[in-house]
Amino acid sequence: MTPDTHPRFFGRRKSRPLKPRQQRLLEELLPHLSLRAVAEDALGDPVRLFDPPPRRLVLEIGFGGGEHLAARAAAHPDWGFIGAEPFVNGVAKLLSAIDEQGLRNIRVWDEDARLLLPKLGDATLDAVWLLYPDPWPKKRHHKRRFVNPENLAQLHRLLKPGGEFLFASDIADYVRWTLAQVRAHGGFEWLAERPADWRTPPAGWPGTRYEAKAIREGRIPTYLTFRKRG
Ligand SMILES: C[S@@+](CC[C@H](N)C(=O)[O-])C[C@H]1O[C@@H](n2cnc3c(N)ncnc32)[C@H](O)[C@@H]1O
Question: Which fold has domain 16-228?
Answer without folding.
Answer: Rossmann fold (3.40.50)
